[in-house]
Amino acid sequence: MVDNYLEIALIFAIALNIIVTLMVAKSGSFDKAQKVAQIVIIWVVPVVASIGILIFILSDRDPKLPASPSGAGVNEKVSQLE
Q1: What is the pTM of this model?
Q2: Considering only CA atoms, which of 43, 47, 50 is closest in space to residue 25?
Q3: What residues of the chain score a pLDDT lower than 50?
Q4: Burial environment of residue 21 by CB neighbours within 10 A (0 to 12, 13 to 18, 19 or more)
Q5: In the prediction, which pLDDT does 32 show?
């Protein structure tokens, strides 16, 4: 069931990208260089976001640092500096 939601979201995202790409390509408001740049951005940004999320997930697998001792919070460190 969860896989179906992922497939639906993926199909929706691809369809939306295709629709916006066609709208940009047919638009008379931009010159050729602007159209190319906008189409590249439309397709690259989701990939960049996916890579960023992948890096976040992989870095989250690293072992965690041990918890700080009780009472050694940020506020106490600041008060020691005064």
Answers
A1: 0.57
A2: 43
A3: none
A4: middle
A5: 93
